[in-house]
Specification:
Length: 390
């Protein structure tokens, strides 16, 4: 029976980052990543908008994104001079109606205390900076002046996986985890769908939207479920090259991408429930009925656009409090999680993976304190809610 010191279930960004940092920190043992879809065609890493921002409501989320920002800016040092993750620092612009102005200002105050480079603008200031923006119904906007933007998440993943392949302590196995073995209150192994069994000293659940289902194999409740999000790519006559990722008070977002733009919005609350794990069909109706009218209202130049393509991916959504679950999972010794980011996992995976690796190797967090993200809070019934979910 094959053995591994630590098994990481999920080989996309969260799992790969955790493995890479474990190896970097000198983890005393071998590491094995288990991934069922080695082409990552359905991974959130491949299907996300790949943004990074400091504009969160919780200081701990700001810290994770700031730590990742430093990692992204030094990607060539970590992975080699040939690495290009395409980081484009255009910023985020979050707009608020009168009803949301107080919350925007409160979040802005938290961000400034944490050292984020953000500005709070009134409608006149917004119009001066962005003449293409219609400010009807907008009371204020929060703009990331630097340190925010988007990047190529698959290029970042390729850098991690290249480093893992070069490390003699790390193995990558294609296979779907169908069972987890436990004994005397601790995890001891796992079973793949093809019947192969592995002995494990520890297990990390980094399976994104499937993390809740994986945890249920042990009888543990880890509140993570797939929620479908559609992303649409369109062309327009106008090109706003310096446009930030702009978020309307309705929740609609839009940003430049290549020779066009990408856009999306969360489904209405009454329609936004757990998704069939195999449902990756874009919600075309969402574009016609909600997105296009909102785009044309907020950016009049987008009244005439041409929809080119669309894709759908899944958030690893945490219905408990929309915040990450990082650290030891209560109920079983040597079971860890890094999941539940609810839409901001791609931008936080490098820092969260580093923090979890530190917790495993040293028994404590050293780079970024992730205590607040402990899965313990679920059983205790004490949510740690993130309000800035896009």
């Amino acid at each position: 029976m094959p053995r591994t010191s630590i098994a990481i279930i999920g080989g996309a960004l969260s799992g790969a980052a955790t493995a890479w940092h474990l190896a970097r920190l000198g983890f005393d043992g071998n590491i094995t990543l288990f991934e069922r879809d080695t082409g990552f065609s359905r991974a959130a890493t491949a299907l996300s908008a790949s943004g990074i921002r400091q504009q969160f409501s919780q200081a701990e989320n700001i810290a994770l994104s700031m730590r990742t920002l430093d990692f992204l800016r030094n990607a060539s040092k970590h992975f080699g001079a040939e690495t290009d993750i395409g980081f484009r620092e255009n910023g985020y612009l979050l707009l608020a109606s009168e009803a949301g102005r107080a919350a925007l200002a409160a979040n802005h105050a938290v961000q400034k205390r944490c050292g984020a480079d953000v500005a709070l603008l009134d409608p006149a200031g917004l119009k001066e900076r962005f003449p293409w923006l219609a400010t009807d119904g907008v009371a204020a906007g929060s703009l990331g002046l630097s340190n925010e933007g988007w990047f190529d998440a698959m290029a970042l993943l390729a850098g991690f996986r290249r480093g893992l392949r070069e490390n003699g302590k790390v193995a990558m196995v294609q296979g779907e985890v169908a069972g987890i073995e436990t004994e005397n209150g601790r995890v001891t192994g796992l079973r793949l769908a093809d019947g192969t069994q592995w002995r494990c000293g520890a297990i990390v659940i980094a399976a994104g939207p499937s993390s809740g289902a994986i945890a249920s194999l042990t009888g543990v409740d880890l509140p993570t479920e797939p929620r479908k999000r559609s992303v649409f790519f369109f062309h327009a006559m106008e090109r706003f090259a310096g446009m930030p990722l702009t978020v309307d008070p309705s929740g609609l977002y839009v940003r430049p991408e290549g020779d066009g733009y990408i856009t999306g919005i969360s489904p209405a609350p009454e329609e936004d429930g757990p998704t069939d794990p195999d449902d990756f069909e874009p919600d075309w109706r969402l574009f016609e009925e909600r997105i296009w009218p909102l785009l044309a209202t907020r950016i009049p130049a987008f009244e005439a656009i041409k929809l080119q393509s669309a894709c759908a991916g899944h958030y690893d959504y945490n219905p408990f409090d929309c915040n990450a679950l990082i650290g030891p999972v209560p109920g079983l010794d040597q079971l860890y999680a890094i999941t539940g980011f609810s839409g901001h996992g791609v931008q936080q995976a490098p820092a969260a993976g580093e923090a979890l690796a530190e917790r495993i190797v040293f028994g404590e967090y050293r780079s970024t304190d992730c205590t607040a993200f402990s899965p313990d809070r679920v059983a205790a019934g004490t949510p740690f809610a993130e309000r800035n979910i896009i």
